[in-house]
Amino acid sequence: AGNGTAVHQTINWIYNKLKSENKLPKTAEVLKTFEKFLKKQRLPEKDLNKYLPKSKDALRAFYEERKDNFKSDHLIEKNFRNQGVVISDQRITGKIDKIKKDGNILEVTDFKTGNPIESWNPSGSYNKIKAWKYKNQLIFYKILIENSGDFEGCQVKKGWLEFVETNDGGQIVRLPLEIKDKDVKRVKRLIRIVGEKIKGLDFSIDQKYEKETVKNIRKFEDYLLNN
Fold it and tell me: How far apart are CA 162 and CA 65, in angstroms?
């Protein structure tokens, strides 16, 4: 968590430098700033010594490959707290890492740390769960943006996961998602149902799901949708 926070703070700092000085900072300055942010997370010294070199190597590779794609008109760390977005009487909010705007067509990007996933159906139960959660996160961002006052009339066509860490082959991974209407409708229904249950303090379910797997998560969502 501390490393992820420091990475996001560093990316935000890069964009602020770009917007204020109209130029990107040098890689060495980026790494120095990241180290400062990471030390502020007050990690145990053994964890700091363990993760700092690896994290700096990952950030160096990411920045040197992707820095030409940093643009001053990107919206960074956009907070929707004061947008008053309401879906079926449920108020929703969030903070989006990056929004790219081309007319009324938008793309959203979520920066991720940790081991990359390279498809929406990766191998391994743990990665499948990550992919499921990440996909729903991007769908949620589409709903949030399109129902906000600041982006009235805009459409989110695509979402991206952008990993600030290389894969086993040393490559930077960006994973696109074409967001489908049927998935948006499903998430909107889940927002309504879960919101109603929270308001009613109704946390009871008639079924048990012993393991956290994508199959069981889907079953639980279907249970909510059908009951």
Answer: 12
